[in-house]
Amino acid sequence: MSFDPVMPPYNASDPTARFVASSCLDFLFIELVPMSYRITNELEEVVVASSSSAADAASIPQSQGTVKKMDEEEEREAVFWRLEGIGYRVGMGLVERFSKDRPKFNDTLDVIKFLCKDLWTLVFRKQVDNLKTNHRGVYVLTDNAFRPFSRMSTEAGGQAVVKAQPFLWIPCGIVRGALAAMGIQATVQAETSELPGAVFQIKTIPAKS
Amino acid sequence: MTVFALIIINKAGGLIYHRTFHEGGLNKISTNDYLVLAGTFHGVHAITARLNPIPQQINRNSASSAGIMTRPEPPSGLEVLESENFRLQCFSTLTGIKFLLFTDTTQTNVDLTMRRVYEMYTDYVMKNPFYQLEMPVRCELFERKLTSYIREVNNR
Amino acid sequence: MVVYSFYIFDRHTECIYQKSWLPPPSIQTTTTSSSDNAKLVFGTVFSLRNMVRKLGGEDDAFISFRTAQYKLHYYETASSLRFVMLTDISTLSMRNVLHQIYINLWVEYVVKNPLSPVEHKGGEGVRNELFELGLDQFIRGLM
């Protein structure tokens, strides 16, 4: 990932040329979500198993099979924080690397524009299509063809929009991390009403002075 | 342009003849493998006829105009198979015997060659009083005529 | 050129996708169900593929066969995914077309689809809208 335009000749025989297939990033984004669900559930099982065996192993031996799983909401929360956290860390690192040649930011809008143009291109290979703000710290970014959703599809009536939701959590984290690295504290939420579009809402938290 | 080999399969799926005319065209396989191959092909041939995706329908227009219900052509089985290294043409006689000619991929006019081979079979095998029907073909005259004909084709 | 039907078999030999472009069959004709048909198709191409390898060598590949009524085209990927297409007999080699379906539709809309599982038991994840739409458009564009 780089802003630097690839200069010709960029053929494979050039020993200094380095390329990464963009599919790698696609696959990574795809796999991180089910992986987080797996990790979250496995950790929960370990916790439940160890606590039950430590507390009262003898009384109900069969309890292992029917351990109380997290309910859906808890699972969703746990996975969200896991993915959002990964994204946050990535976002912070990315900005460190790719803002180095930029002139200083004047205000928050400047930062948001950097996010919409440069960072978005870097991570999602296109710019945000629409940026709206209420001028009181809320920014709404609309991407009509959000890259991670470009090939997302299910059978007709397969609730693709609902299933797509967890795939927004890493991008949310990346945005929040990037903003944090540029000195803006914010909460970031994202949703989609129709694939492949996505809407990100950024609420900046004014710094206490 | 080369004819690699000929296989004849009887109506029960048994191998009754196999001859290689050109070394290096096909892998050498044992007679037992040839027997297995004949049986497999026999089965596959029957299935390929059943897989016909086109609905069989009686042609009503021609039937009404002619006043006779014409029986639809029964679906044929596999006739030509192509792979990267060879081409296989199968001729299934009305009596259920199958002739398999293996040639190189550029071979043309296999129909003609097939026809000649079938003629030779009828002339030198079927007309041979010592030949037992459905049994392996061991007729010297057929062998000789076939070999010289194919040599002629391969040198063309 | 007419395309009759299309099948995908995974490396476990299961038929994970099939589609027909024929008008729905009339009652009198079809006695075999579509899943039976898929099994017959797989048995056929598998036998022929093995036969081709036996005779033509390990590097040889089964490309197609035709009967008097239809032509069957075959393409197998390195990952043992098998694509089969039935067309009319005048159609030239469809190997390229099957390869295109593999790289432009399968890889893009099934492999790179975040909502599609890695294994497609019962066709799960293959019958998604983008793949089906892309396939239908591609095939109708050829006809």
TrEMBL record, chain A:
It comes from the Eukaryota. CDD domains: TRAPPC6A_Trs33. Coiled coil: none annotated. GO terms for biological process: endoplasmic reticulum to Golgi vesicle-mediated transport. InterPro entries: NO_sig/Golgi_transp_ligand-bd, TRAPP_component, TRAPPC6/Trs33. SUPFAM superfamilies: Ligand-binding domain in the NO signalling and Golgi transport. One of its GO terms (cellular component) is TRAPP complex. Pfam families: TRAPP. Belongs to the TRAPP small subunits family. BET3 subfamily. PANTHER family: GEO08327P1 (PTHR12817:SF0), TRAFFICKING PROTEIN PARTICLE COMPLEX SUBUNIT 6B (PTHR12817). This is Trafficking protein particle complex subunit 6B. It comes from Podospora australis. The lineage of its organism: Eukaryota, Fungi, Dikarya, Ascomycota, Pezizomycotina.
From TrEMBL, chain B:
It is found in: Endoplasmic reticulum; Golgi apparatus, cis-Golgi network; Golgi apparatus. Gene3D superfamilies: 3.30.450.70. GO terms for biological process: endoplasmic reticulum to Golgi vesicle-mediated transport. Its main location: endoplasmic reticulum. GO terms for cellular component: endoplasmic reticulum; Golgi apparatus; TRAPP complex. It holds the Pfam family Sybindin. The keyword Endoplasmic reticulum applies. It comes from the Eukaryota. InterPro entries: Longin-like_dom_sf, TRAPPC. CDD domains: TRAPPC4_synbindin. Keywords: Endoplasmic reticulum, ER-Golgi transport, Golgi apparatus, Transport. Belongs to the TRAPP small subunits family. TRAPPC4 subfamily. Part of the multisubunit transport protein particle (TRAPP) complex. This is Trafficking protein particle complex subunit.
From TrEMBL, chain C:
Gene3D superfamilies: 3.30.450.70. This is Trafficking protein particle complex subunit. It comes from the Eukaryota. Coiled coil: none annotated. Belongs to the TRAPP small subunits family. BET5 subfamily. One of its GO terms (cellular component) is Golgi apparatus. The keyword Repeat does not apply. InterPro entries: Longin-like_dom_sf, TRAPPC. GO terms for biological process: endoplasmic reticulum to Golgi vesicle-mediated transport. It is found in: Endoplasmic reticulum; Golgi apparatus, cis-Golgi network. Keywords: Endoplasmic reticulum, ER-Golgi transport, Golgi apparatus, Transport. The keyword Transport applies. Part of the multisubunit transport protein particle (TRAPP) complex. It comes from Podospora australis.
